[in-house]
Amino acid sequence: MVMACGAAALFPLTTISLASSTATTSSLPIISASFCRLPHPQSPFCCIPTGATSIGGSSIRRRFLQLRASAAEEAEKHNVLVVNTNSGGHAFIGFWVAKEMRAAGHRVTVFTVGAETSEKMNKPPFSQFSELREIGVETVWGDPSSIGAKFGSNASFDIVLDNNGKDLEAVKPVADWANESGVGQFLFVSSAGIYKTSDELPHIEGDAVKADAGHVGVENYIGQLSFQSWASFRPQYMTGFGNNKDCEEWFFDRIVRGRPVPIPSPGLQLTNIAHVSDLSSMIALAIEKPKEAHGTIFNAVSDRAVTFDGLVRLCALAAGCEAKIIHYDPKALNIDAKKAFPFRNMHFYAEPRAAKEKLGWKSKTHLSEDLKARFQVYVTNGRHKKDIKFELDDKILDSMKVPVTI
Ligand SMILES: *[C@@H]1O[C@H](CO)[C@@H](O)[C@H](O)[C@H]1NC(C)=O
Ligand SMILES: *[C@@H]1O[C@H](CO)[C@@H](O)[C@H](O)[C@H]1NC(C)=O
Fold it and tell me: Which of 176, 218, 221, 226 should be mutated for ligand 2, with most atoms under 8 A from CB?
């Protein structure tokens, strides 16, 4: 199947004139293909690590010991509760962790905020929750602030992952209930967005954070409870199946339509796009090694950064299209880069140092390969044909006198 998308060829370089003295045109695209090749769609789950981690004998005092005492063969298996948000960019982390933990033979319950009948459940990853049930994951819905009423104090979960709350108000009921019901390990999905801007990059665990950030309050609080093991994971930008927040899609939207890709200058800003399977493997390893993980903040990111321009080129390569990068100066054009571009317009990337040092974790993903799989999903979903408005892009390109001929 061949789909023409070579409209980029309609933008002769000579027509580009710069409205702002600080803006520069990009280097020429390195992609020379003039049409899109669309290979057969692959399984969106081809990135799930198949080598299920075996859980070694844990010496955790609370629930782990009870399990070991009760049944020898049960001892290796945990009972995991994932409290999952029903919206935002983190929802698919719970989906992937549930799959990975279940594949390793653990009992897993995913407790999603709200009602099963809510409209939010029509979107990925929730629309695929049947896949979880098929492999034996229990899926329930409700209000985490009354989690005690939902599960009682005898729920016998060994491990609770809160992938929902962004502040103490939201997480405290879950953490207190888990603490009181003797849960051995409590894990929290925080955010790398809480790091203060710094002169040294990448951000590593221990760097200064915005003290008033809600996530910081949670991290401090769970450390004071009686969990045998606790840990916090700070993700950054993510990609992978079930992501319901635009990441690479923003780039594909422009590239497949032959539209110039407006990038805040200079385009060399570094960011980190992690495949969610790197996060789920990290969380799985923290469950496997509760002692090593205990009391630790983990940057839950992949171990390479990518430049903005580089991301355009990798997305173009994945799509088999040409890409035309246009650099603009948001200030000079009076453009709010937060609205015109999906990532923070600055160097922003963290390093997964604690996971490597304490857990022996390794990234198993490759952004360029992952983007190819993501492009299949993009096309399978029909988004390449969707009518999308590019008003802000047009404003930028118009200010820079870049013609758009679609
Ligand atoms: C909790 O479990 C214990 C021991 O199995 C049992 O005696 C007790 O009634 C249970 N409590 C509740 C609230 O279910
Ligand atoms: C946490 O649990 C421990 C042990 O069960 C208990 O002593 C402590 O008071 C609990 N902390 C909170 C804040 O409830």
Answer: 226
